[in-house]
Write a structure and sequence with these properties.
- This protein is of the alpha+beta class.
- The chain has two domains: 288 residues, no CATH class; 37 residues, Endo-n-acetylneuraminidase fold.
- Helix content is 36%, strand content 17%.
- The chain has eleven helices and nine strands.
- A hairpin with a 6-residue loop joins strand 4 and strand 5.
- Helix 4 crosses helix 6.
- The radius of gyration is 24 Å and the shape is globular.
- It starts with 9 loop residues before the first helix and ends with a strand.
């Protein structure tokens, strides 16, 4: 899997390949309601306390060290499954109106290049795993971690009151160990990948909020407990999409003071900086247009668009076809005594616009 990649970058990029490319065909048309097959389903003839997670870990595309960590941590395989769901759905949602719409086609080739899209994939992947790990701890799905520390409450009390904080501290620590981020590589691409992965982790941290709950008689708030809670992952997705739109192209320079190779942005005016900000997504080369089929995407032909907002960009000047579709919807709904709603079925004619091939 790491053929042709810098050795120091392999655990990082392999992680993204793991949660994006494995069983890729199963994700076409993903809606969030169907079961994922990134991991096999429940093992039918095994008791609940069996070591089924060991089999799940073995069937995943991970490095040897990552598989070892997965085997040690019951619940991690299911957490990886959840991170797949988060990252794929969020990527597709954020790029639903873009020429590159987070399609599975061409992702293997895309991850080998230093495009803005590669930066987003790495960031949203690490963000999804960080978010899923923190949530798995607070929901009791991980054996080696529990709630984030809530001042004045023991864990048992936290569960009782429903104030179990999302354990981002454990999540961040474990994630760095899982990805193998120990030292800065001299390889430019490895530095860029590590930087973008950290942008994803920081984006999750920025959504950590304090939530409080009253425990007094009749909600008097005589006793108030506060804990840390992550914002919905879609908030993180919006932030990372903004980082993508503002991404900075970088190159490498040698720090005259230390002799180390560092990332530098076009704003640089001296031998020591400025470096790209820790919150900025960075890329190495300009992206293709994604208008025509290529090894990076299937192109935009046949994509549905909005006549007033997106057809001009999505169709790349080729124009669009217009068709009339009949859709059914519930209408003239009335509430009947008691607690029953009756609706009629109506037909509505809609204009649908799709990009032309030529």
């Amino acid at each position: 899997m790491c053929t042709g990649l810098p050795r120091t970058a392999c655990p990082l990029r392999l992680f993204a390949l793991c949660i994006i490319l494995s069983h890729a065909a199963a994700y076409f048309g993903l809606t969030g309601r169907e079961p994922l097959v990134f991991l096999p389903g429940p093992f039918a003839n095994e008791p609940p306390n069996s070591k089924a997670h060991l089999k799940q870990c073995e069937q995943m595309t991970l490095t040897r060290r990552q598989k070892r960590l997965c085997r040690r941590e019951p619940g991690l395989a299911e957490t990886l499954r959840e991170s797949v769901r988060l990252s794929l759905l969020e990527c597709r949602y954020q790029f639903r109106n873009e020429r590159w719409n987070c399609s599975m086609d061409g992702r293997g080739s895309l991850l080998k290049r230093g495009f803005k899209e590669t930066a987003f994939l790495l960031a949203v992947s690490s963000a999804a795993l960080s978010h899923a790990l923190a949530k798995a701890c607070s929901s009791g799905r991980m054996e080696r971690c529990t709630c984030d520390d809530s001042p004045g409450l023991q864990h048992r009390e936290a569960w009782q009151w429903g104030v179990c904080g999302d354990n981002l501290k454990y999540s961040t620590k474990f994630l760095k160990k899982f990805l193998g981020q120990k030292r800065v590589s001299k390889d430019l691409r490895a530095q860029i990948d590590a930087h973008n992965i950290n942008v994803g982790i920081r984006a999750v941290k920025s959504g950590l909020k304090t939530t409080c709950k009253c425990h007094g008689v009749s909600g008097s708030c005589a006793v108030r407990t506060c804990w840390k809670q992550l914002s919905p992952f879609q908030d993180t997705g919006h932030l990372l999409k903004y980082r993508y739109d503002m991404a900075v192209r970088v190159h490498s320079v040698t720090n005259s003071a230390t002799g180390e190779t560092e990332l530098a942005s076009p704003r640089r005016h001296s031998n020591t900086g400025p470096r790209p900000r820790p919150t900025e997504l960075v890329f190495l080369e300009e992206s293709p247009s994604f208008c025509r089929p290529s090894r990076y995407s299937p192109g935009t032909a046949g994509r549905q668009c909005s006549k007033d907002t997106s057809c001009s960009s999505l169709c790349c000047g080729r124009g669009y076809n217009t068709a009339l579709h009949l859709t059914t919807l519930s209408c003239h709904c009335q509430v009947r005594w008691c607690c029953h709603v009756e609706c009629q079925t109506c037909l509505r004619e809609e204009e649908v616009y799709t990009c032309k091939k030529h």
